[in-house]
Amino acid sequence: MADCIFCKIARGEIPCAKIVENEYALSFLDIGPINAGHALVIPKNHYPTLFELPDEELAACAIMVRQVAAAVYKAVGAAGLNFLQNNFKAAGQLVEHAHFHLIPRHYNDGFLTSWPGKAYAVGEMEKMLEKVQAQL
Ligand code: 5GP
Ligand code: ZN
User: pLDDT band at residue 2, thresholds of 50, 70 and 90?
Assistant: First the structure.
């Protein structure tokens, strides 16, 4: 993808604060951190969302996620860490190259202050389970 910002970073055409890389994945600091130390892990090849990522490249990203998550957590003395991944605009995805967020957390840092869980009506959870399993 010629004009994809993360492809340009992966190709070394624009700079990044690189943390680590392997054959399939690259990690660098997010330029607009939720908290200092916020890191991204991306596949080096262009895939728009999680759904297109081949198993081997996803596995490489996942292993790097765990490695970098632990490093960021320790480096900033975090109290917690969120591993987030946005797919499509409705979910907050701005860069259309799949990526994984590692966000170190501190008490009262103002991020994700609520988790507005809802309740299923009686029987609806079982129906949903069938619908999801039918798509596997
Ligand atoms: P999204 O909303 O797509 O899940 O997140 C995209 C993330 O990429 C944002 O957190 C944003 O700060 C980060 N980002 C966008 N452009 C650049 C860039 O050129 N360099 C770096 N290091 N991060 C970027
Ligand atoms: Zn790309």
Answer: confident
